[in-house]
Amino acid sequence: MERRSLYILGAALLSTAFFLGSQYVAPIALLLNMFGPVPAAYVHMRQGPLAGVVVIVLSCALLLMLLPPVLTLGFLLQYGVVAFFVPFFLRRGHAWDRTLVLTVWAGIAIALPLLLAVSQGQGLSPGEMVRQEGRQVIDQALRFYDEGNLPAQEREALEQTLTALAEVFVRIYPAVTIVLLGVLAAVVVLLLHLFAKGRYAVPGPAFAQWKAPDALIWPVIVAGFALLLEQATVKTLALNVLVVLLPVYFAQGLAVVTHYLRRRSVSPVFRSLIYFLIFVLNPLPMFVTAMGVFDIWIDFRKPKLQKTS
Fold this sequence. Notes:
This protein is mostly helical. The protein has helices at 2-24, 29-35, 38-47, 49-66, 69-91, 96-121, 126-146, 152-195, 217-226, 232-263, 268-280, 284-298. It has 2 domains: 1-204, Arp2/3 complex 21 kDa subunit ARPC3, CATH 1.10.1760; 205-304, no CATH class.
């Protein structure tokens, strides 16, 4: 019992530290956010849902003593949802890919009413609220830029570029939210798999053999053609569909790459380097995404027939 309590307390302190670090250590905020939900999720997988919930509640209590309540709510939506639902579905035997989908839906079902309530409380539409947040980010970037005493012409060009990007972000905000939640859940699944060591099981296919449902390609094709239309609402809808689905095919392309790396028995060090380059070196992400799309028809992982003499 004492060991169980130490696990819970340690996980709560670790989750709190990750979140606090993401707020105050900007250069590594993304990395800290990726790891943030893992301690609570791990305790949940090892000791059950009640222990996982206690970790989340303790973390919220600690954060309420250190941060404004709105940031604690952000912790709950950003870490708490993923930390609870990923192990919740895995422990019930759902495959890891289905778990990602269910976790995203659960996150949307929780976050959407809260977003609507907050926007109504501020007398703004959700889009206007997101635009307002974007304006604050732009102002902060311009203040940082002004410290360099650079030419006014360059500052004006930067402001125009950031404003245009902010408008695009407002249009695709729903899709970006879905993708970020899905990526966070995927990182948690991956780390839970690495930390399992036989203590629990992460159901589902090996990633190297994973494929998206074939029917998913049709919304991608329709959305691609819809971008050619002049109707703004249709274009916005098409953009959101592509932002959500293209990362799915990037993942499928990555699974193809993983298949070949394993078949060639590439060492873990070189595999890690290849994965790093895929994520950071253009145009490799687009190439891998295209590979995932064409895998539907070409089936890159299909065993080759041996020629008989």
